[in-house]
Design goal:
Elements (H helix, E strand, L loop, with lengths): L1 H15 L1 H7 L9 H16 L3 H23 L1 H13 L5 H32 L2 H21 L8
Length: about 160
């Protein structure tokens, strides 16, 4: 049950942050600060969905939250990669340490999920039906683009 809840939370986080993540990863913007990335994402989504001031404010809050989660997740990335490398080259794989690392990441998701879901709900609930449809079409387009780039076929999963 806990695994399915975690999967659902992860899926909601991914869907909710699709616009922000896409804008953050846009080529040529790697030199941007997190605040500049949030502004870029907010401008891009606001323009594409024609958001009003309240909707824009709700999206900016969601983007800021997602950006902070990304910053927090990356904070110990180098240390974690070194730890994983040590585990992979050790004579015996430390299953307990690997499980602890996974649980720490899962705990971070569990801790942040309610706030992200509330922010996502606030943004989505402020959208008009046409804007929601356009957002759905954008997510589907990105999903198809991702499948195509990674050699998957539309019918397989």
């Amino acid at each position: 049950m806990k695994t399915s809840r975690t999967l659902i939370a992860a899926t909601v986080l991914i869907i909710g942050s699709t616009g922000a993540a896409y804008a953050f990863a846009k080529h040529g913007h790697w030199h941007m600060t997190p605040a500049e990335k949030v502004e870029f994402a907010t401008e891009r989504v606001s323009k594409h969905l024609e958001l009003d001031d309240l909707q824009r404010q709700n999206f900016a809050a969601l983007a800021e939250l997602v950006a902070q989660i990304v910053i927090d997740a990356r904070a110990s990335k180098a240390e974690q990669l070194a730890e994983v490398e040590q585990m992979l080259t050790a004579p015996v794989f430390d299953q307990a340490l690997a499980l602890q690392m996974v649980r720490e990441k899962t705990r971070m998701l569990d801790d942040k999920a309610p706030e992200v879901i509330a922010s996502l709900a606030l943004f989505l609930d402020s959208l008009q039906p046409g804007q929601k449809q356009e957002l759905g079409e954008f997510i589907e387009h990105r999903r198809q683009h991702y499948r195509h780039r990674h050699g998957s076929h539309a019918g397989s999963q």
